[in-house]
Amino acid sequence: MEKLHTPLDLPRILNAFLSMLQTEGLEPISMRKIADFLGVKAASLYYHVKDKEHLIYLMGEKYRSEVELPGPELNWREGLRIWACNFRDTLKLYRDSVQIMNATFAPSPHRLAHIEFLYRVFAQQGFPDPQIPWYSSMLKTYVLGFVDEENRMLKRSIRRQEDAEASEDSAFSSLPEEKYPHLVRLAEYTASTDFDNEFAGGLQVLLDGFEAQLKAKK
Question: Buried (b) or exposed (e) across 156-194, using 16+ Cβ within 10 A?
């Protein structure tokens, strides 16, 4: 609980929500818990925010505002690559960030700015209009899905500490080889946690696919 009796306002509520997110995660947080953290009555929060969903919306906007949009001077592939890397880096800063981003669909200013950026990059490169929303969504979904899996693996590594990779490697390599020959052969790579190279490799495959589709249309 906060000790200082400062006036209750939206920034103070958001800071409390963020602090609780980092320590507890999204699921157990309620408006009553936020009020207790701030040392106020729950009813007083509703003067500033509608409900928990409204707080999630505002937090999603905060995350998006911290993702730097690349400049127009970059070629299309480099612009998309940097955007994806910036997006991933920001999401990694905050607990349950992917869950928060997936829970917000409202056309908020920063969300619209990111969509406009992606659409502009694809449009200026000459991608067909019907494909632009599709490819933009694929790129966003790749980043969100990767960070979600990355965070899950990191949490498991923390629980198992230094034995995490060895345990998973051992689990796969000890399978019956006649039944799972490829799982056994690739066990050490399956348990690998080289997230940066994996993210870069997957992103390159995605961009290569976009480029191949563009060339096929010309």
Answer: ebeeeeeebeeebbeebbeeeeeeeeeebeebeeebeee
